[in-house]
Amino acid sequence: MRSLLSHVLVLAVLPLALADHSPRVLHRLYDPSQPPAPFRPRAFLHVSSSGPGSSVSIAPAETFSADLLEFLSAAEDSPSALYQLALERPTDTDPSHWDISSVKACHLPQSTSESVTVHLAADGTPFSLDYFIGPIPRDGACPSRRRAKASGSLSSAAAFTGFANTTVTLAEPRLPPLPLLRTPPPLTPEGQPVQTVPEKSFIQKYWMYILAVLLVLVVSPGGGEEGGGSGGNGGGGR
Predict the structure, then answer these.
(1) What pLDDT digit, counting tens, does each position of 179-227 carry?
(2) d(Cα 74, Cα 173) in Å, to the nearest integer?
(3) In which order are the strands placed within the sheet that holds 113-120?
């Protein structure tokens, strides 16, 4: 209990005068088998500016530690309970319209760190958040209650000493990549695409030269008949 209270005091980085003007992060324990419980204040956000040099600060609410211990005690009797964080919208009081991030409440007692990612709109105001805790099992299964009772370990609320590390980061809006558009084809005055002339093949380009070479080879006279006639004359004289 003392560790959790000291952790809350360390996180109180905003002046109390700014708390009423900062966006509020709310939390609650949600049991699917029960009517939704109302959200309670958990922290106040303060975004310094928008752009690459922007930063975020968080100041816990005064009732954060007491509410969290109450949620842990109630979650012991509800294995399917979820611990939810929501970003309040001043212009919309309906919680069903808020952006909510949930984790299994059964993982809270064994978790030592938490991470909050605040998403900013184009004008630099927060509009949604993501919440993560760790470590948790790879399969995401809740710890066995039978083993805890057999080992005589303390209850979840009594064993929880608070988060040793809380990280708050900003996610600024990013524009999607522009599509690669093809250059439109040129149009005729009538609005029809200009038909490109197909390129000629090698034979279509140089057929007249090939034909001239073939004619020269065919018309040129052949030699070798004179040697045969002289040999015949010499045999007749003997």
Answers:
(1) 888 888 888 888 888 887 788 888 888 888 888 888 888 887 765 555 5
(2) 38
(3) 126-134, 113-120, 165-171
